Amino acid sequence: MISEEIRKKYMPTIGLEIHFEPKTKHKMFCNCLNDPDETIPNKNVCPICLAHPGALPTINKEAIESILKLGMALDCTIPEVARFDRKNYFYPDLPKSYQITQAFLPFCQNGKLTPFLEDNIEEVLIKEIHLEEDTGKLLHNGDKTLIDYNRASRPLIELVTQACIHDGKTARVFAESLQVILRSLNISDADMEKGQMRVEVNVSVSQDDKLGTKTEVKNINSFKSAEKAIDYEIERQIELLEKGEKILQETRGWDDTNTCTISQRIKEGADDYRYFPEPDLPNIIVRGENGMFDLEKLKNDLGELPNNKKNRLMNEYGLISNKATFLVVNNLISDFFEKTNVELKILIGDNLVTDQTVNLIYNYLVTDILGGLVNKNLTFNDLKISPIEFAKLIKLLVENKLSSRGAKIILEKMLMGEKDPETIMKNNNLEQVSNDEELQKMIELVLNENDKSVQEYKSGKVTVLQFLIGKTMAKTKGSGNPEKIKELLEKML
Ligand SMILES: [Zn+2]
């Protein structure tokens, strides 16, 4: 471990390259299905994606619409004209011996995103987002290698940030926030475990404004690993520089088991991919008079972006940041939450809806409904409770007709398919006794039976009150309203 003092001498700089698979119907340049779940090898292939001589690519408009939507969601500049280019290199998983990508005129440039899933994370600048095609897959089997071209030429979107990040945490929260946006726009499921989203990081440390040599880290399989890999690389590079050694420009792999990075390939100078404009595809007029895309319409289709939604949930419902975040990452749950609030308003009237009722809804939703589903190995899709039934339950709590213990019992029954909370309450004698007269009678009994405690209270031992509340609660078989009992007891003693 390096000391804080040494660490301060260096400025870490991090850039991210994030790939993800848009879920379009077809592949990028042909009509083959873009099906990530296809298990039969080489099923979704044709002369175009297998690069047979004379086969010409066509453009998948849906993939371009996906990238344009993302670009607008991330405040990017959308150019009038974009272009595809050839990146030339040989590898057996690449049937054409070149990859069609965008090296010079990408669809989106100069965007930004403030990672919103945690508080106080600095804005991240986006250099560009471009569209390209994926490669096939090699399967090594003993001394043989098999090739599956199902993935070849499936669309792939790459987002490149500016080197403006200075710690692992910011990088992690940025990638997590991006995933929430991709899902909200329905562009990609962006599941890291399934390889639908891949994060690569570039890390360097500079000293006295002198830029350091950067290393690239690959094989990162989770957001947490991205954070750990960056923090490890920063530490490793500073340690080497402190010893007077040089940082090699190299590609390193993240080893999740040993939580370290390992050298994979030393880079000597930049790779030469001999990029040039793809001659088989026209320039793409994105917008303007002859533009292929209606950007206004695409913009309207974006819906409420999760970062805006989080702010709205905080302002409209008075939710604290981490509660709003919890709702934002799951549309089904946040819809249920919002609908319940609307129904409760109708049931009890605007003026009785407060921060307190909002929090009742949130807490019973997260603790008892979600918790109950998890215990039953169910998901939110399996939920049998409707927002209006849930709102009726909250109404009983607000009106003091139900104790929190009773509410939990009723919710458990509602999770099993029982419907109206008031009926369940009555059928199971869960009604909370808040009726003064009834409670007063019980308290009188308690006071008569516990004369010694009453004397103690009167001689100044106020802690006895708790004992008397307990005795009265027992008389009501747990259905008494403890606050009401306390109030009456104090009056009657
Ligand atoms: Zn094809």
Task: Indicate the topology.
Blueprint: H1 4-7, E1 10-20, H2 61-73, E2 81-82, E3 85-88, E4 98-101, E5 108-113, E6 124-133, E7 137-141, E8 144-148, E9 155-161, H3 168-184, E10 197-207, E11 215-220, H4 223-242, E12 250-255, E13 260-266, E14 276-277, E15 284-285, H5 295-300, H6 306-317, H7 321-328, H8 331-348, H9 355-375, H10 387-398, H11 404-415, H12 421-427, H13 436-449, H14 451-458, H15 464-475, H16 482-492
The structure holds zinc ion.
Zinc ion (ZN) is lined by residues 27, 30, 32, 45-46, 48-49.
Summarize the structure in words.
By secondary structure, the protein is of the alpha+beta class. It folds into three domains: 295 residues, no CATH class; 98 residues, no CATH class; 57 residues, Arc Repressor Mutant, subunit A (Orthogonal Bundle), CATH 1.10.10.410. Strands 5-6-9-1-10-11-12-13 form an eight-stranded mixed sheet, covered by helices on one side. The structure holds zinc ion (ZN). The site of zinc ion has 7 residues, from loops.
